[in-house]
Specification:
This protein is an alpha/beta fold and 275 residues long. The protein is built from eleven helices and eight strands. It has an eight-stranded mixed sheet, sandwiched between helices. Helix 7 links the parallel strand 6 and strand 7.
Length: 275
C-alpha cells in the first residue's frame, strides 16, 4: 500500500476532480486527504453536494493529535465515506473509500506548521494498519512552502498535474526541478511523475511538454470533459447503472482507468526504494 501526493505548481488544471474520479475507480481501499490550506473543502460542497456537516476536518484532526496522539485511529475518526450519499455507507465496513476534508478556512490553517508532518505520520500509520492507500490532494505548492513540502518528500509517489499548454509547462519548470531535487535528496528521485490535462483551446502533445519538464515523466493525458466536471467537481448525479455511467463518461472513465494502471505500475517501480 502507498501514499501518493498529487499537486500542481501553476493554475488549476484539475487536480481535485481527477483525484476524486481516480479514488472512486481505484482497485484498493483509499483515503482522499484534502491537504490544501488555501481553501476550504472542495469535495464536500462539490462532488458530495453538502450531504454531511463540516464537522470532521483538518482542524479537528489537529486537535485530536494533541489529545490522542499521531495514531491510525486518530486519523480514521476524521474520515467520512467518499460518496454522493455518504449516509448510505456510514458504518458499512465493506465500503472503504474515504475523505478527510480540508481546513474549514485558510485562517484555520495558520499556526499549524508541525501539523503537516504529523498528518503524514498518522496517514502512514493508517495505511500500514488498514492496508489502505492514501491520496494527498496537495493543491498548488512550491518548494518555498517548507512545512507542507514534507507531504511530497514523504510520499511514495508524487504526481504533478498541469494543463497541456506550453504556458503551464514553462511556468512549472523551476518548481518541478526543485521538487525533483528535494526527492533526490531523500533518495527517491523516481517518485516524481506527471499527468497532463487536455486544454480545449490548445493541445500540445506530451512529447512536446516533456521537453520542458524532463524530471517528471508524463504518464498519460486526461481528456477535457464537461460531463466529468459536472459530476466530480459539482455534484451532478452519478448514473445508477454502470452502463449508463460508462456511456456518459466513456472517454473520461477509460482515461482514468489508464491513469490508474500506470500509477500502479509506477508504484511497483518505486516502492522498493521507499520502504
Amino acid at each position: 500500500m502507498a501514499i501518493i501526493a498529487y499537486f500542481s505548481t501553476h493554475g488549476a488544471p484539475g487536480v481535485t476532480m481527477s483525484t476524486v474520479a481516480l479514488a472512486l475507480q481505484w482497485p484498493r481501499p483509499v483515503a482522499l486527504v484534502e491537504a490544501d490550506p488555501a481553501a476550504p473543502s472542495a469535495v464536500l460542497p462539490g462532488f458530495m453536494r453538502g450531504a454531511v456537516k463540516y464537522e470532521r476536518n483538518m482542524t479537528e484532526l489537529a486537535k485530536s493529535f494533541d489529545a490522542f496522539g499521531l495514531t491510525s485511529e486518530t486519523f480514521f475518526h476524521q474520515l467520512i465515506p467518499l460518496a454522493q450519499d455518504p449516509a448510505r455507507f456510514a458504518g458499512d465496513a465493506r465500503y472503504r473509500k474515504y475523505l478527510l476534508p480540508a481546513f474549514p478556512s485558510p485562517r484555520a490553517a495558520t499556526g499549524h506548521e508541525s501539523f503537516w508532518n504529523n498528518l503524514l505520520i498518522s496517514a502512514r500509520a493508517f495505511e500500514k494498519t488498514t492496508g489502505s492507500d492514501i491520496f494527498l490532494d496537495v493543491g498548488r505548492i512550491t518548494t518555498r512552502e517548507k512545512h507542507r513540502m514534507v507531504l511530497l518528500t514523504g510520499a511514495d509517489l508524487v504526481v504533478a498535474h498541469l494543463s497541456a499548454t506550453l504556458v503551464d509547462a514553462w511556468s512549472s519548470q523551476e518548481n518541478i526541478t526543485r521538487i525533483h531535487q528535494a526527492l533526490e535528496e531523500q533518495g527517491n528521485p523516481d517518485a516524481l511523475c506527471a499527468v497532463t490535462h487536455q486544454n480545449p483551446a490548445v493541445d500540445f502533445t506530451n512529447d512536446e511538454l516533456s521537453l520542458l519538464i524532463p524530471d517528471a515523466p508524463i504518464l498519460t493525458r486526461l481528456p477535457f470533459s464537461q460531463e466529468a466536471s459536472a459530476i466530480f467537481s459539482h455534484g451532478a448525479d452519478i448514473p445508477a447503472s454502470p452502463k449508463k455511467l460508462e456511456k456518459k463518461l466513456a472517454s473520461y472513465q477509460k482515461s482514468i482507468g489508464v491513469y490508474s494502471a500506470k500509477l500502479q505500475g509506477r508504484l511497483e517501480h518505486t516502492l522498493p526504494t521507499t520502504r
